[in-house]
User: Which sequence fits this backbone?
């Protein structure tokens, strides 16, 4: 790793965190100061990120693009609309078609012209289409355009996209196109017409020599620390597990990111007390986060209750890519696949690096059943319901599902049929104190208080 003077280390780490959090950095995204900071440390970042994680950094006139290597599919970081709603399949399709249309355009384009170009391509895709006469289609298309605008691929020169979305006959928008950003937004590692499955985009070990195999295992282990909320040893292959248990892997990550790591018997987590490096902060604010933290306390108490009946313990289900890959592959237009070229790579990119099951240390995790969880949440609502948002109080089942989804996303629990399994990370939060601020009750219209004679 490169030598950074101590007095400049914080600036270097800030640039590294920006790049790791936002693999595409432009003149305006995520903020105007990000790109100059990365340019200042470009040589050091390029060397360190490649050596430590296997990531490649590319710089253009208006962009810094980190080409990450993926070891597994991850649905936890979707593209989002300006209202923070995850993109659906239609919006993803419009985004891809918009990028294709912008690649054929000049330096400026009108929103209606861009919509017509996308519509011409969308009509050839079964079940898609784009009609500017349908408000839902216009809204989805404008969400895709807005996503690109935020990142600087498009800059509004005149007009309003929202006015066009409300009424395309009364509104229009004109955009400047940054071709460097358009090219940098989507950089597949493989030609898509060569793929039969999305798993071919995942990295596959290619090493034959012992040293190369060890280097690739080190990359996988350190990437896992960045890409996952917690890394459990029993979810890694043996080579990556050995690296992560060694003395150097954690130090390398800490030095680049400026964050701290916490090692337990079951695994390792990177701790971000500022929340600036995380896409999901926990503990957090809001009804769902508060309910999730309260649930953790109840689950921990149940696990440690020596007077209660012993809980059933089950092994956590394997985190295989097959189910998610199957759902994604269902949308792959097989007519566009070049069979001969695809067959050459049919076995590539399974996302599996060895077999972690061979040396599993997992002796089983306690099962908390759905009925018990529902009863616990009902009790929490009785005690703390006045502090929760009214919409969540009115729908306990939805609140429970949302809280468990959050805990599952953070790998604190894992969903199984009939309930959840409590994973080791749950123990870290069992002593966290929840500050509950009770809202003042609204005064009754006919409550005149006490009167004295």
Assistant:
């Amino acid at each position: 790793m490169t030598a950074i003077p101590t007095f400049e280390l914080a600036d270097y780490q800030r640039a590294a965190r920006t790049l790791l959090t936002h693999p595409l950095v432009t003149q305006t995204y995520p903020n105007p100061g990000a790109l100059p900071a990365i340019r200042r440390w470009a040589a050091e970042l390029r060397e360190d990120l490649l050596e430590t994680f296997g990531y490649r950094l590319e710089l253009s006139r208006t962009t810094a693009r980190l080409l990450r290597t993926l070891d597994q599919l991850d649905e936890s970081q979707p593209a989002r609309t300006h209202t923070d709603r995850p993109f659906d399949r239609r919006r993803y399709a419009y985004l891809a078609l918009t990028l294709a249309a912008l690649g054929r355009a000049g330096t400026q384009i009108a929103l209606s012209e861009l919509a017509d170009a996308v519509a011409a391509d969308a009509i050839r895709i079964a079940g898609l289409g784009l009609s500017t006469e349908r408000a839902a289609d216009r809204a989805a298309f404008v969400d895709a355009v807005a996503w690109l605008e935020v990142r600087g691929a498009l800059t509004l020169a005149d007009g309003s996209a929202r006015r066009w979305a409300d009424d395309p006959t009364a509104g229009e928008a004109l955009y400047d196109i940054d071709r460097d950003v358009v090219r940098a937004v989507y950089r597949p590692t493989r030609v898509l017409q060569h793929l039969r499955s999305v798993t071919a985009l995942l990295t596959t070990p290619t090493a034959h020599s012992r040293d190369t195999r060890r280097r690739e295992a080190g990359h996988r282990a350190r990437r896992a620390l960045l890409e996952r909320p917690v890394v459990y040893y029993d979810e890694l292959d043996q080579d990556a597990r050995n690296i992560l248990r060694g003395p150097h892997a954690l130090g390398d990550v800490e030095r680049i990111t400026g964050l701290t790591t916490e090692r337990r018997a079951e695994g390792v987590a990177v701790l971000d007390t500022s929340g600036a490096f995380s896409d999901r902060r926990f503990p957090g604010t809001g009804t769902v986060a508060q309910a999730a933290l309260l649930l953790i306390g109840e689950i921990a108490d149940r696990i440690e209750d020596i007077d209660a009946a012993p809980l059933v313990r089950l092994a956590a289900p394997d985190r295989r890519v097959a189910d998610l890959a199957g759902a994604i592959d269902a949308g792959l237009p097989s007519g566009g696949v070049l069979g001969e070229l695809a067959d050459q790579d049919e076995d590539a990119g399974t996302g599996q690096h060895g077999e972690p099951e061979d040396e599993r240390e997992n002796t089983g995790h306690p099962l908390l059943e759905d009925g018990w969880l529902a009863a616990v949440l009902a009790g929490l609502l009785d005690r703390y319901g006045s502090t929760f948002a009214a919409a969540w109080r009115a729908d306990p089942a939805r609140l429970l599902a949302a809280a468990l989804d959050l805990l599952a996303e953070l790998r604190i629990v894992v969903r199984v049929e009939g309930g959840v399994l409590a994973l080791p990370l749950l123990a870290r939060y069992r002593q966290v104190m929840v500050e509950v601020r009770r809202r003042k009750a609204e005064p009754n219209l006919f409550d005149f208080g006490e009167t004295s004679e």
Summary: The CA atoms of residues 29 and 151 lie 5 Å apart. Residues 357-361, 445-453 have pLDDT under 50 and may be disordered.
